[in-house]
Amino acid sequence: MSKAMTNPGLTWMAPRVAAALLVAGLSACEPQTPVNTAPPEAITAPPPAANPQPDVNAKPVERAAPPMIKPVALGEFDPGNPVATAVTGKLSLEDTLIKGENGASFTTERVALVSGGDQYSAGATYAQAMIVDASQPIELRRVLEETPPTQSPANALCGGNRTGFIALAKVEDATGETLKLIGLKGTDLPAASANGVELCASTQYFPIAGGGDAEGKKVAKR
Fold it and tell me: Which of 73, 77, 97, 75 is nearest to 89 (CA)?
């Protein structure tokens, strides 16, 4: 027997070395757990949502229409003062057209509903020009096209100037109804800050019995 085998220190260590080698060998034979390379579940992005399909039965969104300006009066009217007789004679007041029996006509569009106390020019109010209350509703129309009276063109609402705007008011009192109409020259929208807006003429008319808005209503006394 060799000296190494009989050495007491080596004899005591041999079993421990053998056991360690056995453990190492078994570990080498066991399958290795693969390393998880996927990101943590908490931060994994959700799958993209499916593209939504349009609802063919849904109604399209409609754009809100601007509020409509209602006319203060429509129908036929007799002239109620000499100025009205000269500029139009009997008057026909339609939705966009104002026509006089003498051939005068105005193609118009409603642009605003103001009050008598409002100014059409600096310091000048509709109430002063039309002799109405400050709270009186006034329909303001822009004149798009104008034709002067056939026989007397000089009697046009604004004379030799183009009429820029017409303001209308229907006044009711104990005597009945009166339509008041003024012509304004100028291209600026009538307001306190407007430039070049001036009063041309102030007229008044009475509803013709049985016609238009006057039907069933009392006609003003002349």
Answer: 77
pLDDT in tens, 62-101: 554 456 788 999 999 999 999 999 999 999 999 999 999 9
58 vs 124, which has greater pLDDT?
124
Closest CA to 179 of 96, 56, 84: 84
Indicate if the alpha-carbon torsion angle 23, 25, 29, 34 is positive or negative: positive
In degrees rounded to 5, what are phi and psi of residue 23?
A: -65, -40
- Tell me the mean pLDDT in the region 150-171: 96
Angle in degrees, CA 147, 99, 124, rounded to 5: 80
138 CB contacts (<8 Å, ≥6 apart)? 72, 113, 114, 115, 116, 118, 126, 130, 132, 167, 168, 169
Alpha carbon separation from 132 to 24, 29, 171 (Å, rounded): 113, 111, 8
Confidence check: pLDDT of 174 > 60: yes
Tell me the pairing of strands 198-207 and 176-185: antiparallel
CA distances from residue 11 to 1, 5, 14, 15 in whole angstroms, order as listed: 13, 7, 6, 8
- What does the chain come to in residues? 222
CA distances for 207 relative to 4, 53, 92, angstroms: 143, 60, 10
**DSSP per residue, 8-67:** HHHHHHHHHHHHHHHHHHHHHHSPPPPP--SPPGGGPPPPPPPPPPP-TTSPPPPPPPPP
What tokens were used for 185?
């020259």
Biggest CA–CA distance in the chain, Å, is 157
Radius of gyration of the chain (CA): 47
